[in-house]
Amino acid sequence: MQPVNIICMKWGQKYGADYANRLYRMVKRHLTLNFRFVCFTDDDTGLEDGIEAMPLPSLDLPEGAPERGWNKLSTFEPDLAGLSGETLFLDLDVVIVGNIDDLFSHPGDFLIIRDKKFKRRLIGNSSVYRFRIGEHPEVLSYFQQNFAKVQSSFRNEQAYLSDQINQKDKLSFWPEEWCISFKYNCVSPWPIAYFKDPQVPPNTKILIFHGYPLPEHAIAGITHKWYRPIRPCPWLADHWK
């Protein structure tokens, strides 16, 4: 049976090799399918054995263009580093807390998290998405040929990506309880959060960390906004390792 692909991207200075290594170890613990783990990166220093480091695909963005996650669109190259088949993209800062086999068997041509902040609109959160290599090359080609127009029309890559896939009537969302936001779904609203520890809802497979806190902040209980206090989460360290 052909192995499935798990891919991630690491560039710049925000995330070190330790993030990719933790992600690889979490996948090994929570995926029973045969898989390849590929990290597209501009620096493969410190990556563990078992991680296939490949050069970060180039988007050739105009000099000075804001990043905003556009690099993820390069995953839609027609021939992505010679890979083929079912592929799951994971952000480096997700925390896997349950078995993820179902992310490869759940029906749908293209699956992505439904963005909680834009629930009434068909916008995905691209922390976790599944597709088949080479099936949506126009997502990348249109972006490359119309960068200024795309940038003026869409705030970031996930809004543009969702729109492109939806135009093909291929956009599907994961079951809501599978991939959830740590700060929106695990942390209680103010002021209860001062007294109640964050908890993982039943049936959760992946916690996503967008903006702040990052996983290490959540473990230590570091609060970045007074109205969103976070009590220390030592249990998170048992997963993020």
Could you characterize the architecture of this molecule?
The chain has helices spanning 17-30, 102-105, 137-145, 147-153, 157-167, 182-186, 215-220, 234-239, and strands at residues 4-10, 35-41, 51-55, 86-90, 95-96, 110-114, 124-132, 171-173, 179-181, 206-208. It is of the alpha/beta class. The protein has 2 domains: 4-173, Alpha-Beta Complex (Spore Coat Polysaccharide Biosynthesis Protein SpsA, Chain A); 179-239, no CATH class. A 7-stranded mixed sheet has the order 3-2-1-4-7-6-8, sandwiched between helices. The chain starts with a strand and ends with a helix.
How helix-rich are the residues, as a percent range? Answer: 25-40%
Q: Give the rounded overall mean pLDDT.
A: 93
Total individual domains: 2
Straight-line N-to-C gap:
29 Å
Total E-strand runs: 10
| Cα Rg | 18 Å
What is the string of helix and strand elements?
A: EHEEEEHEEHHHEEHEHH
- What percent of residues are in strands? 15-25%
Briefly note the structural class of the backbone.
alpha/beta
Spatial sequence of strands, sheet with the most strands: 3-2-1-4-7-6-8
* CATH-defined architecture of the largest domain: Alpha-Beta Complex
Describe the main β-sheet briefly. Answer: 7 strands, mixed
What name does the CATH topology of the largest domain carry? Spore Coat Polysaccharide Biosynthesis Protein SpsA, Chain A
Low-confidence stretches: none
Keywords: Transferase
Protein name: Glycosyltransferase
GO molecular function: transferase activity
